Amino acid sequence: MQIITLTSDMGLTDHYVASLKGTIFSRTKDVQIVDISHDVQAFDVAQQAYYINNCFRDFPEGTIHVCCVDSEPIINFGSSQDSAVPAILLFEGHYFVSNDNGFFGLLLKNVPTDSFWKIDDVLSNPSLYRFPTKNILIPAACRIANGEDVSTFASQADEYKRSIAIAAVIGDNLIKGNVIHIDHYGNVITNVTRDLFDRFGENIPFTIFFRRKEYYIDEISPSYNAVVPGEKVAVFNSNGFLEIALNRGARTTTGGASTLFGLSINDIVRIEFSPRGSKDTIDSLF
Amino acid sequence: MQIITLTSDMGLTDHYVASLKGTIFSRTKDVQIVDISHDVQAFDVAQQAYYINNCFRDFPEGTIHVCCVDSEPIINFGSSQDSAVPAILLFEGHYFVSNDNGFFGLLLKNVPTDSFWKIDDVLSNPSLYRFPTKNILIPAACRIANGEDVSTFASQADEYKRSIAIAAVIGDNLIKGNVIHIDHYGNVITNVTRDLFDRFGENIPFTIFFRRKEYYIDEISPSYNAVVPGEKVAVFNSNGFLEIALNRGARTTTGGASTLFGLSINDIVRIEFSPRGSKDTIDSLF
Amino acid sequence: MQIITLTSDMGLTDHYVASLKGTIFSRTKDVQIVDISHDVQAFDVAQQAYYINNCFRDFPEGTIHVCCVDSEPIINFGSSQDSAVPAILLFEGHYFVSNDNGFFGLLLKNVPTDSFWKIDDVLSNPSLYRFPTKNILIPAACRIANGEDVSTFASQADEYKRSIAIAAVIGDNLIKGNVIHIDHYGNVITNVTRDLFDRFGENIPFTIFFRRKEYYIDEISPSYNAVVPGEKVAVFNSNGFLEIALNRGARTTTGGASTLFGLSINDIVRIEFSPRGSKDTIDSLF
Predict the structure, then answer these.
(1) Angstrom distance (rounded) from CA B186 to CA B251
(2) What pLDDT, on a 0 to 100 scale, did the predictor assign at position C158?
(3) What are the b/e assignments for C83-110, b being 16+ CB within 10 Å?
(4) Do A74 and B238 touch (CB under 8 A)?
(5) CB-CB under 8 Å, A238 with C18
(6) Shortest CA distance to B20 belongs to which of B154, B149, B136?
């Protein structure tokens, strides 16, 4: 059975997402629709890329992901970098249907790709622009679901729009990362990957510093429960990112890590590696 | 495959909607359930009608729409206008199962209909009233889904309860409309339809005035991106209603059009047609 | 078709629930996933038990309920009461897959059960703990869905962890109950069951007192509409619990019963039975 996922900034209060689902069921049979999130911050293509990148591999290959954020096409006949045209990407066996508004660049981290198409005939009917997700992206997804060859309704294209995400940087005995997400629990997810961290070798003492300097962590735990409830904890989460959390913290009840550490998206998190010992070890000498 | 949609004011936090879905899967096979919205304002039958009217045609014909808002039956043996009995409507090939609480009147805009039934045996078991959506409306929807003839469990009825929605009115060179909805982005949807607007002819200059008199718009744009980000824009949306928006505005982040223009549901929006020229054109003469 | 339900405290904004759904569709075919709630208060196992207990019987027998709240295993080699290991319960024909964190005790109200298994091999791979719902509970649910015998991947166990929910208590002509839930409408659900109430016999006058002593109710109504809109009303709801409501009250608009009566979860509700007459009857004598 074909799966189509939907990600948008439309919310679930209005009828907009239901319009998309009705259109899918009107155009294809035997399909399962899965909502990834409809609470992406409005027009925040980077957040959409974050959500999709962190879960699309959980779906079976062949899944079609309709990425609805910022879907109104922009056609500039000058620079193609200023345009944003509806397009289709085949990546790791998954289809992504999105406006080329930077989303593909963020998802692919700007590596080249062969399987990229721009959807044809987008200019022919401007009234489609009144609800472009429903009128352009969903029909394209349904044609893929129905087994049509993408090349019959889209044209192979050389390149998608490049887009820059903030990357963690490395210095002497230092990683300078950024907060890229704060989740439902108030857990703080950074762009520091396990791969990057491991370059500094095993068993080198380190200290993670946040915006509020009175807090720091000098240990990576295997899971939240490695510390007592309410205690701060650093883990590499299941997506491989360094995550700063409170065990059993929660934004909606007790306040999570983001509140305690005063951290917002894009804030800097510093990891200092100290071959001589972590902050606690050194402090204890005096 | 049969599709059943659900619209309610129950929210998704409690188990109520799950009870409805479990009941459906217990009573019928091979069904897909689609949520239209469960965030209708409590007991707001007009908002339910707005959501459903704007998306039901996107679903395949034969879809069954269970409309759960204000579902407790009211039986008055005097005036039938004071009663509210569970009923079924067949309209444009779609089934609507709802309490007759004004919803049908708002959906149909009070035009006569032939295919309207009142569900039988509602009075026989008062304990059904403790969760009437689950105990009365859902079972009726499942019987339709299972191919039972409606007339075996419901009785053809002459008329549904009439209900009045505020309509836009026309004066000399004037349309006086109302805000009927504010969406997730803060976009302001009015009851001014394209048909009504077009009666004033093409190329007649006009000015749209809001509650905050310092703002006005004198142009209809083909889509949001016709103006620069953050700029105000008037469009006829995909449902044919005049919508006042900010390009890339959003209630949850920057504040949308409703905030900027100080507009709430039912507020008046005036469109003045000026054969001599729009406000800007005339102002520029002085 | 197999049904799997999901209940969690993950919210629907992040990609976490979508990860679970993708994993299900990657591991089993022909399955329908139903969300019970993803808005359980963080780590609130009692609230999860409340939601599931009140709707699981609406689903067909054989449904698999994945209960995701507080899913990180805790292994203590001392007392098994301090441990929390992933487990499976078969109860009234339904499967429940959950961490044994007290949820089973609350669901079963501590009665003995025969069909209880602890999932094997949980200790072998600690990296599973980074997202234990996805890595431990969902795979177990999918193996059940695929028809595998539970005993091939889980071991029969003697007992689940006991857990105590606050029960209503009975005194001389008195029931002292507690608020166990406040729903989307602001309706106040108590732990006073119809069975308990009926022990005091029929037609004995009574008065229900709340925190705000200026309010009381001395009648049980068959449904909300038995009183006029805005009026306070006591009903036994479809789950058999005494519920204090305002007819057409709503937390999000006019303010519901919880606001009017100043009631929060765990607050006491007293029902005094007065063979001599209810508060109103007695007051009227003076």
Answers:
(1) 5
(2) 85
(3) bbbbbbbebeebbbbbbbbbbbbbbbeb
(4) no
(5) no
(6) B136
Backbone angles phi, psi at B81, to 5 degrees: -65, -25
Mean pLDDT of A182-211: 92
Residues of B in Cβ contact (< 8 Å) with A265: none
Compare all CA atoms of chain A with the CA of C22 and give the residue at the minimum distance: A59
ipTM above 0.85, yes or no: yes
**Secondary structure of A123-160 as H, E, C letters:** CCCHHHHHCHHHHHHHHHHHHHHCCCCHHHCEEECCCC
What 3-state class would DSSP assign to A90?
strand
Q: Give the neighbours of chain C: at least 3 Cβ pairs within 8 Å.
A: A, B
Helix axes A16-27, A138-145, angle to 10 degrees: 30
Ranges under pLDDT 70 in chain C: 77-81, 276-286
* Burial of residue A101, with CB atoms counted within 10 A of its CB: 0-12 exposed, 13-18 middle, 19 or more buried: buried
Looking at residue A205, what is its pLDDT? 93
A14-33 tens-digit pLDDT: 999 999 999 999 999 899 99
How many Å lie between the alpha carbon of B62 and the closest alpha carbon of chain A? 11
Contacts of C9 in chain A (CB under 8 A): 184, 250
pLDDT in tens, B217-248: 999 999 999 999 999 999 999 999 999 999 99
Residues of chain B with confidence (pLDDT) below 50: none
Q: What is the pLDDT of residue C76?
A: 74
The answer to whether the CB atoms of C13 and A184 lie below 8 A apart is yes
* Count of pairs with CB atoms under 8 A, one residue in A, one in C: 98
pLDDT at position B280 is 63
Q: What's the gap in Å between the CA of B98 and the closest CA on chain C?
A: 17
* Confidence (pLDDT) at A281: 59
Instruction: Tell me which residues of chain C have a C-beta less than 8 Å from any C-beta of chain B.
Output: 1, 3, 5, 12, 32, 34-39, 50-52, 54-60, 63, 183-185, 222-225, 235-238, 248-250, 252-254
Structure confidence at residue C251 (pLDDT): 80
What stretches of chain C show up as alpha helix (H) in DSSP? 16-27, 45-53, 103-108, 132, 138-145, 194-198, 257-261, 279-283
In this prediction the pTM is 0.94
User: What span, in angstroms and rounded, lies between the C-alpha atoms of A20 and A34?
Assistant: 12
Judging contacts by C-beta atoms under 8 Å, the chain B residues touching residue C46 are none
Chain centroid to Cα B131, Å, comes to 24
Chains contacting B (3+ CB pairs below 8 angstroms): A, C
Task: Report residue A224's pLDDT band, with 50, 70 and 90 as the boundaries.
Answer: very high
As given in the structure block, the two tokens for residue A64 are 């079609």
- Give CA angle at C266 (C260, C269), nearest 5°: 60
Q: Longest C-alpha distance within chain A, in Å?
A: 75
Query: Using the 8-state DSSP alphabet, how is residue B210 labeled?
Result: -
Partner-chain contact C43 A225, CB within 8 Å: no
Cβ separation A58–C19 shorter than 8 A: yes
Q: Cβ contact (<8 Å) for A22 and B238? A: no
**Structure tokens, C198:** 């009926």
Report whether pLDDT(A275) > 80.
Answer: no
Report the distance separating Cα B186 and Cα B166, nearest Å: 21
Closest CA to A136 of A73, A178, A197, A78: A73
Query: Are the beta carbons of A222 and C42 separated by less than 8 Å?
Result: no
Q: Which residues contact C59 (CB under 8 A, 6 or more apart)?
A: B22, B25, B26, C3, C5, C34, C65, C94
Q: What local confidence, expressed as pLDDT, does residue B201 receive?
A: 78
State how far the alpha carbon of B74 is from the alpha carbons of B81, B85, C64, C227, C236, in Å.
10, 6, 37, 11, 19
DSSP notation for A106-118? HHHTT---S-EEE
Tell me whether residues C183 and B16 touch, CB distance under 8 A: yes
- pLDDT of the residue at B87: 97
Confidence (pLDDT) at C280: 63
pLDDT at C123: 79
Contact check, Cβ <8 Å, A55/C22: yes
